């Protein structure tokens, strides 16, 4: 049985502390072998019923990237309209996407119709497949960080429009649009906290029932 040392646990905690949602990237390319090493961690992720429902689209063409960026800009404008006063001014100043600079962009999907796993664990809670994809993304993200790469999750998007623009299969559900590359700077503080949007809660709510 593999035993993990206290030093390993400390390093793991530091890794999680330094895993940030990166939105400011250098345009330097990412080595293909390095990117593949990060993507390979999807194959190590747990999944409901061993269904392995994650599907990855690499967004490389100018057409696809332009469509994704326009999607974000439209959704971001709509989101801004939902705020007013100081909150609107603060929102308008936030950088919420690295899509213009990130050398690698990935659309991560869940295959809701996969036959793999024979529906085990997903018959009563089909959302478990999507949770499985999120777990795989987390492993990818942490691994990327160990190599010095940054990852940014763009959630201000119209999924239906993006699926159409990327010609994704009808049974695939968008889980994440990820920007990947070398960060302009490293920080262990969330960018939204530094900008004054929200503070991290240092307490954990645990209740008995």
Question: Could you describe the 3D structure shown?
Answer:
It contains seven helices and four strands, in the order ααβααβαβαβα. It is α+β, with helices and mostly antiparallel strands. It has a single domain (21-183), classed as NADH Oxidase. The radius of gyration is 18 Å and the shape is globular. It starts with 5 loop residues before the first helix and ends in a 14-residue tail after the last helix. The model has no long low-confidence stretch (mean pLDDT 96).
Number of structural units classed as domains: 1
Strand order of the largest sheet: 1-2-4-3
Largest sheet: 4 strands, antiparallel
| Structural shape | globular
Rg, Å, rounded: 18 Å
Assigned CATH superfamily: NADH Oxidase
CATH class: Alpha Beta
At CATH level 3, the topology is: NADH Oxidase
Q: Which parts are unreliable, with pLDDT below 50 for 5 consecutive residues or more?
A: none
Distance between the termini: 35 Å
How much of the sequence is in beta strands? 5-15%
Helix and strand content put the structural class at: alpha+beta
Q: Count the DSSP helices.
A: 7
Quick structural overview:
The chain is of the alpha+beta class. It has one domain (21-183): NADH Oxidase (3-Layer(aba) Sandwich).
């Amino acid at each position: 049985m593999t035993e993990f040392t206290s030093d390993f646990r400390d390093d793991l905690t530091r890794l999680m502390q330094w895993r940030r949602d990166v939105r400011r990237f250098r345009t330097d390319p990412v080595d293909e072998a390095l990117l593949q090493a990060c993507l390979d961690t999807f194959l190590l992720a747990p999944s409901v019923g061993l269904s392995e429902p994650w599907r990855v689209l690499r967004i490389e063409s100018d057409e696809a990237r332009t469509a994704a960026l326009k999607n974000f800009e439209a959704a971001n404008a709509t989101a801004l309209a939902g705020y007013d006063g100081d909150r609107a001014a603060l929102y308008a100043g936030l950088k919420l996407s690295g899509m213009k600079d990130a050398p690698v962009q990935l659309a991560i999907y869940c295959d809701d119709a996969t036959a793999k796993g024979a529906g085990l664990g997903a018959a009563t809670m089909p959302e478990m497949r999507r949770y499985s994809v999120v777990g795989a993304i987390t492993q990818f993200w942490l691994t990327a960080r160990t190599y010095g790469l940054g990852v940014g999750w763009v959630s201000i998007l119209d999924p239906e429009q993006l699926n159409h623009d990327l010609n994704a299969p009808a049974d695939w559900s968008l889980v994440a649009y990820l920007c990947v590359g070398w960060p302009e700077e490293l920080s262990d503080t969330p960018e939204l906290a530094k900008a004054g949007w929200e503070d991290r809660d240092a307490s954990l709510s645990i209740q008995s029932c």
